[in-house]
Recover the amino acids of this structure.
């Protein structure tokens, strides 16, 4: 590898995730993008493949029964001369921590909005997370084949609720039964919609130029005139696309279409590969690491268990930040200070996986994990540094876990330790008793943990209510004061699964009072891995 090749390969990568509210069409648009990337033959197979995988993966049976998707998978496909890496995220909000962490591994995001519903809760929350790293956002307003809201109104809502400027790139021609296509405001091309093309790549029926008489022929004179006036109005009233403002996360280019009808997706993808940023420099505790730094670096943002139940394996998903991964290379696992030879990293094409020979910045590789890798771990070629900004959120729900068979304590501890390293749950061990308290962001996490403890560790457990309402990680530079705090507040202190001191508050009022009483102690709602 030489530096030019590295810069070139990195420059081709577009690594992103989709943010949306459930049902806005994330799965459908994923299928259509894979179709355009020739990663699947027939649109629709993401769902069926997913189901196959669920069927073979025992703990996921539960989520299948509930009809939700808990997994994060990675899909790589070529498009427009680029290599696109799409990191899928769980749809259900109970697994939002997974989604937040995945968002730390992308360079941009695609926001899918249901044109009838506008901006919904989950989107607001996910947008906040994107803001933490000023992730550039491209927008697709979906379901134009339905009777949706006035597109101007939807864009207004995006601007006011999400506090980001909208620059329409395409403009819809009609909607619902009268949805006829989109007009590309920058290429001056009318793209015509034909129904029933959802399962294959539709032919691009286009008319060059809004003023072309062909537009009048196809739309009818009246509607053609209406469209021209509307376009003039939209041009005057909305923001112009500005690449820098998009890259700074201040403006979002907006595309319209129907994921189900596989229309408008092509224009969005064309814009995406052109404007979305290639792999960006990333912060560590020592220095910023640009993608074209020849020294290999990466970090783990996700650990997934039992992707292949025949091997009971756990896969750590590593985002390559700089340099090149070569099969059989040696890397330093920084947290444990060990050099490891990686011979069997995996790559992901849709939901299939195969061994990878090489990987470049922006790519995701899967490392087999035998319990040593944790979320947030950095890998380098010897340099001692850590990537920062992979957050751990304070849980909002707590339960005490009790064993049905008290002789299984060891197995329970081991199971909880591993599940917390994976990020499936958080464990807190109070300082003044032997309870084990689990913390979660969503209640389904508890069900998954109980299920996995039973299946994987042969431990039957039950949950009990516990008097904890919120948790904060405790930091204090003054060792003496910290000791005093530990003594005086011990009934509300615990050690979490990572060994960090945590204040577990019975009420928010209690937390507030404690914070007031101890102004020099920091109570943090997030902790970095
Ligand atoms: P999600 O992953 O964001 O949760 O959404 P998903 O793609 O599963 O889409 C949610 C529902 O919306 C699906 O209907 C899907 O077919 C529909 N949908 C997605 N895009 C469009 C679109 O452009 N137009 C219209 N009219 N519908 C769309 P469903 O009935 O819940 O599932 P299914 O039986 O169709 O799979």
């Amino acid at each position: 590898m030489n530096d030019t090749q590295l810069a070139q390969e990195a420059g081709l990568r577009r690594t992103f995730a989709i943010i949306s509210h459930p049902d806005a069409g994330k799965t459908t648009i994923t299928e259509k993008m894979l179709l355009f990337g020739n990663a699947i033959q027939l649109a629709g197979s993401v769902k069926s493949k997913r189901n196959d995988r669920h069927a073979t993966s025992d703990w996921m049976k539960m989520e299948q029964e509930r009809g939700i998707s808990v997994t994060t998978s990675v899909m790589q496909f070529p498009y427009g001369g680029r290599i696109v890496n799409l990191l899928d995220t769980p749809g259900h909000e109970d697994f939002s921590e997974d989604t937040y962490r995945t968002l730390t591994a992308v360079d941009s995001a695609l926001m899918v909005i249901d044109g009838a519903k506008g901006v919904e809760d989950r989107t607001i929350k996910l947008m906040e997370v994107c803001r933490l790293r000023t992730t550039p956002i491209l927008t697709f307003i979906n379901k134009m084949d339905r009777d949706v809201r006035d597109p101007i109104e939807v864009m207004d809502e995006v601007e006011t609720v999400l506090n980001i400027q909208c620059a329409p790139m395409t403009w819809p021609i009609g909607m619902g039964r009268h949805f006829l296509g989109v007009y590309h405001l920058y290429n001056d091309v009318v793209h015509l919609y034909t129904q029933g093309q959802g399962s294959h790549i539709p032919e691009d029926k286009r008319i060059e130029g809004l003023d072309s008489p062909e537009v009048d022929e196809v739309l009818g004179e009246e509607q053609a005139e209406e469209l021209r006036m509307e376009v003039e109005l939209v041009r005057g009233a909305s923001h112009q696309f500005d690449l820098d403002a998009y890259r700074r996360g201040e403006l979002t280019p907006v595309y319209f279409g129907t994921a189900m009808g596989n229309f408008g997706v092509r224009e969005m993808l064309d814009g995406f590969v052109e404007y979305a940023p290639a792999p960006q420099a990333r912060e560590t505790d020592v220095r910023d690491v640009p993608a074209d730094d020849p020294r290999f670096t990466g970090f783990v943002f996700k650990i997934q268990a039992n992707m292949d139940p025949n091997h009971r394996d756990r896969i750590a998903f590593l985002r390559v930040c700089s340099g090149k991964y070569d099969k059989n290379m040696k890397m330093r696992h920084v947290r444990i200070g060990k050099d490891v030879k990686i011979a069997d990293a995996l790559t992901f094409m849709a939901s299939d996986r195969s061994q990878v020979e090489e990987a470049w910045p922006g790519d995701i590789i899967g490392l087999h994990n035998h319990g040593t890798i944790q979320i947030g771990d950095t890998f380098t070629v010897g340099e001692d540094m850590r990537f920062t900004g992979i957050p751990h959120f304070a849980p909002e729900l707590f339960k005490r876990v009790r064993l049905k068979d008290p002789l299984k304590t060891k197995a329970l501890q081991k199971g909880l330790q591993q599940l917390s390293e994976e990020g499936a749950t958080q464990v807190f061990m109070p300082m003044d008793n032997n309870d084990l308290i689990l913390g979660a962001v969503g209640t389904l996490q508890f069900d998954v943990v109980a299920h996995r403890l039973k299946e994987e560790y042969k431990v039957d457990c039950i949950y009990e209510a516990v008097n904890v309402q919120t948790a904060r990680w405790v930091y204090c530079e003054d060792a003496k004061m910290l000791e005093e705090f530990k003594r005086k507040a011990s009934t509300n202190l615990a050690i979490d699964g990572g060994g960090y001191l945590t204040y577990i508050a019975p009420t928010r009022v209690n937390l507030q009072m404690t914070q007031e009483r101890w102004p020099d102690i920091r109570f943090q709602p997030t902790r970095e891995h």
